[in-house]
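Please review this one.

:::
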Amino acid sequence: MKKIKIIGMGLIGGSLALAIKKAHPNYLVYASDLDERNLVLAREMAAIDGVDLDDAEADVIIVATPVKTAELILASLRTDALVTDVCSTKVSLAKAASHLPNYVGSHPMAGSEKAGMLAARVDLFENARFVLTRDSEELRDLYSATNANFSVMDAETHDDITSQVSHLPQIIATTLVNSERDYDAIQPLSRELIAGGFRDMTRIASSDVDMWVDILKTNRDNVVEKISRFQARLEQIKVAVIDGNEAKVRDLFVASKVFRDTIAKSTGAIQGFYDLYLGIPDEAGSLAKVVAILAKHEISLINIQILETRTDVNGVLQVSFRNERERERARDVLSEYNVIEEN
């Protein structure tokens, strides 16, 4: 019987444990974590079978800790078992694991601003991109219940790309919140006008601080390059605004919109989401009504969120589907129940 050892029972490690047990209920999953509460929760959630398995007994070892901790763990391992990590940078970890004959770096491109085993979900990685630094059928099989889309690329390429599409957005969100913190000291009324746009752009600013300190430290050169590129873009639009160059401002906004729309139709992490925007009254049961209607007609949804939650104002419910056919079915069914689509 295959034995899996997961080091770190936080959001990612815990979610992987749940997915592995779902796909392979006969596998034995063991965990270790410095926080005993995560291990207790993992047992209560039936994510693990035991704790602190000896490395020599494990068939697979998954390191799911912050990057700098993972470096130390990988460097200390002495095993012929399949070893992987799920950290957000890969080059420094590949170096730390260079002595391990069966090491494969991996990175699920999904997460949450929440942390710990309490936030773990079996569907956390569904439709997300799961990067492997070299192909491994054993890992693909182990992670099959994640329903993720696998990509294979070397560690250097991974770190370069993620510095642009993951690490830079985190820095921008963090900096935007700090900018508002500075402005709030001057004009405290500003927080009363914060709405959906600010909320959506800054949600990830609540992410785990220690994790991000490690990420930026281990991907410094790539991140600095991307910050410089972004500063140049900011300067470009700043100059256009100062000069009153309406045509330039318009061009920048149009180019952004067009490219953003192409991303939504491509193979990235936001691929395949077909959205309906529904007007719902600010009253108890509105959200449950929509979900119940879809469930009654066996229409599966990918994601659901309320875009506006202002008191006494109708909210906008964004419901995402896997394909165009499901969205059209939902549109037809919901219209029969007088659920109004927002344009």
User: Anything to note?
Assistant: Confidence is low (pLDDT under 50) at residues 309-313. The two ends are 54 Å apart (CA to CA).
